[in-house]
Amino acid sequence: MKGFCINNKVRDALEFHDKVKSLGFQLDEITYGTLINGICKIGQTRAAIELLHRLENQPDKPNVVMYNTVIDGLCKDGLVNEAKTLFSKPLNCSVKMGFALIDGYFLINKVNEAAKLFDSMIKACLTPRVQSYNIMINGYCKNKMVDQAITLFKEMRHKGLVPDTVTYSTLIDGLCKSGRISCV
Hints:
- This protein folds into 2 domains: 1-126, Serine Threonine Protein Phosphatase 5, Tetratricopeptide repeat, CATH 1.25.40; 127-184, no CATH class.
- It has 11 helices and no strands.
- The longest helix has 13 residues, at 10-22.
- It is mainly alpha-helical.
């Protein structure tokens, strides 16, 4: 199945899945994760959700990686409300899931929702990382909210986090695009 998915032959992978299952074989979570990833990459995220729901009734339940993949796919497809519903399911939500959802909120210009989720993740004792701040700074810059990005940049430095190349590149790009090249 991985070979089919890597070569963008996800429909062939699904047919192979159906054939193998009809022969009585049980597939593991790695195989299902590969299949879900392939389905999402071809823009069929709703089909991936259906597969997740079918797996919930199997002995091997969907894992966090599978949910991460689907949430990320939903956000990239602009289906952030569906991603939020999936994110709120009672399972061990991962940091990656939260930031996929934050990125999705920025994609559909729901900046306040992104900021609320970021703040709630920080308050839930999440130790912020540079990559976490980069997602927020990038979202603010893309939504022409460079002042908020600069404030977050200062906050991360105050917390002892060292900005990386992505942080600086994102801020410089945001400042230039907002006509504030003198700040660079």
